[in-house]
Each structure stands twice: as C-alpha cells, then as structure tokens.
Amino acid sequence: MTVVHRSHDRGITTLTLDSPANRNALSAALVGELGAALADCAADPGVRAVLLTHTGTTFCAGADLKSPPDPAAFVALMRAVVELPKPVVARVTGHVRAGGLGLLGACDIAVAGPDSSYAFTEALLGLAPAVISMPLLPRMDPRAAGRYYLTGERFGAAEAVRAGLLTEAADDVDTALTPVLDGLRRASPQGLAASKALVTATVVETFDRWTSDLSARSAALFASAEAKEGVTAFLERREPPWVL
C-alpha cells in the first residue's frame, strides 16, 4: 500500500503523507517512499518546488515505534529535504510530534493552520531529540528549544512561529500559500537552487559535523533500559515509573 501520494500542478509537485493507521508516523515504508519521491523530484526538470502535506489530523506523529525506519535512512531523508536543489514547502493542518518536527524543520518554508499542534515528546519516553536537532537547532529560538525539548509541552501554531519552527500561522493555509507558490513558480530554477544553498548552508554544516555523534547518541538512548520502559509504557497507555 502506497503511503506517499504524488500530484503535480504548474511546476509544484505535492507529496502527501497518507498513512492513517499510524498517524503518518515515520515507518520504514514512509521514509523509503518519501525519500524516493524526493529523489525523483530532484531529477525532474519539470519540478520547480515540492509541497509536503498530509491526510488526516496529523502531519507526522514521529517515529513509528512498531515499525521504525533504519535510523540512517531517517537522517538521510532529513538531509535530502535540506539539500534538495528545489524548495520544499510544508503545508500543515494537523499535529506534529517528535521526529515529525525534524521533517518539518528540514523544510524551507512551513505554513500551518490553527488546528495544528507541536510537541517534543522524546524526554517523556527516556529519549532525546537527538538527530532531529540537526535541522532544528540552527533555526529555532534557543530559549524555546530549551523549554520544549525538556518539558514535552504541547504548543500551537503561533508559538511555533515564534520558536522558529514555522514560517507562518494562518487561519486559511491555502490562501497563505498562494503567494508563496506563485513566487516559486516565477523564480528561475538556478536562482532557487543558489538561493536555497545560501539559507541552508549552516544546516548542512550541522549535518556534516554532528551526524555521526548524534546518531550514536540516539542509538544508545533507544537501547537503554529507561527508554525501553518509556516506550513500553507509551504503547501500553500507562505512566512510566519516573512520573512524580
């Protein structure tokens, strides 16, 4: 079953995450299909930009704990979004959690609606937002990252804009995206690629410097007894033993 659908209109290829059974979680299948779709977009001269969106009420629920992707494949997916020589625009009308925020943060432009919400839930499970920090921390307000990484609090679109996760919060996402997509259609392919390289340079440098270290940290955390208990408690819908 296909979990990433493609459509195309006047230079904009829309990639739609459609895995309702797990709330568009980052499964091996979704990461693989999305990576392949992005590679096709990179090679297609008819694609001026990519619009990344979703079905249902969740943009991405984070890692699929029952069918997780290869960690290296997820890191490669985030880097592919950052390094794609064409802008990637996120259209968000639902919830974004944990690893899904890494996917969102890798996008060049992100516009979300009033029903969207955000949370870094890793610390609640005995984990940390390790590899997703590579696209996120260069772009986020440090104080906001310090708060939400540690507390796991849920916050809305307006706060996500202030924190640096979103470009814009809008009551009507498609109306807000109209001038954005029109602008991308008017820009030259070379101009877009060169301009994107300027604004993503720091993020790419972060991947170069930290991929090995943060991937190792993430693997160690997932293998720990505390994280295994946290994940088990989450799947069993109960509180882990460290909750006071």
TrEMBL record:
Entry-linked Gene3D superfamilies: 2-enoyl-CoA Hydratase, Chain A, domain 1, Lyase 2-enoyl-coa Hydratase, Chain A, domain 2
Domain of life where this protein originates: Bacteria
Membrane-crossing residue ranges in chain numbering: none
UniProt xrefs under PANTHER family: ENOYL-COA HYDRATASE, POLYKETIDE BIOSYNTHESIS ENOYL-COA HYDRATASE PKSH-RELATED
Family recorded in the similarity comment: Belongs to the enoyl-CoA hydratase/isomerase family.
Name of the protein: Enoyl-CoA hydratase family protein
Species the sequence originates in: Streptomyces melanogenes
